Amino acid sequence: MGGHLLDAGTPLVVYDPSAEARRPLVERGAREAASAAEAAAQSDLVLAVVVDDAQVREALTDAFAGARPGTVLAICASVRPDTCRELEAAGRELGLQVVDAALVRGERGAEEGRLVLYCGGDADAIAALGEACAPFAETVLCVGAIGSGQVAKIANNILLWACIRADVEALRLARALGVEPSALREALALGSGANRPLAEWGRHRLRWPRKDLEVALAVAAEAGVELELVSQLPRLMQELSADDLHELL
Asked: How many CB atoms lie within 10 A of CB 226?
């Protein structure tokens, strides 16, 4: 994401707790900050690209200390919707605009500059986010109020991991019955079973199924919604590796 911004001539300030993680972008011309607060103090827009709820809280709490009133802070991690609402309320008291902007299409989407951002929050802030993120985002979509982007991402993640597991089982069955997966994928692309993971088969890295599904199941339990199929997915996805997908090319 940072590389695409630099290629587009966007002024960029970067911070990560790991100096090694910051170095590639600094070497390409980004300014280096010593903390999230220092990065926010130099920015009109802050993108928090971390892993989980705890890291989001830590990063934004630090950024709040340096951000000027009116700054837009976007939560790009896949986290709970109530975490976004909590941080938006805290930011609003400081005159800051916090939105959720969950990233869809993963590492490959970032590398290719084709990410989709599912957003929730103030429409004007999201419009500004969309303009700034154009170098690495194909679409920046406002789904609704703060936290709505995370709801959309949770639904997206459920379908992603469910499709991958179903695809694996279908391809394994086909091979056992004498039809190679490569031939079957071409046929399935034309049928009602077509799905994006199958169309991009072999390119998935399976980084975060456990975390994604734990979030989905936790918020579902709190909402009183039973997800019978999804409840089986953490175990089923844990059994798979990227090598399993490549073996079915």
From this structure: 9
Architecture of the structural domain at 2-145: 3-Layer(aba) Sandwich (3.40)
Nearest of 244, 158, 232, 159 to residue 204 by alpha carbon: 244
Tokens of 3: 């590389």
Q: What residues does 97 pair with on adjacent strands?
A: 72
Average pLDDT, integer, range 53-70:
97
Indicate whether 171 pLDDT > 90: yes
Kindly indicate the confidence band of residue 203, based on its pLDDT and cuts at 50, 70 and 90: confident
CA distances in angstroms from 10 to 134, 151, 216, listed in the order given: 11, 30, 35
- Report the C-alpha gap between 11 and 2 in whole angstroms: 10
CATH assignment of 152-246, given 3.90.1010.20, 3.40.630.30, 1.10.1040.10, 2.40.50.140? 1.10.1040.10
Over residues 64-115, the pLDDT tens digits come to 999 999 999 999 999 999 999 999 999 999 999 999 999 999 888 999 999 9
Cβ atoms of 36 and 16 closer than 8 Å: no
Q: Locate tokens 């579902």: which residue?
A: 220
Rg (the chain; Cα; Å): 20
Distance separating alpha carbons of residues 202 and 216, to the nearest angstrom = 25
Stated pTM of the model: 0.92
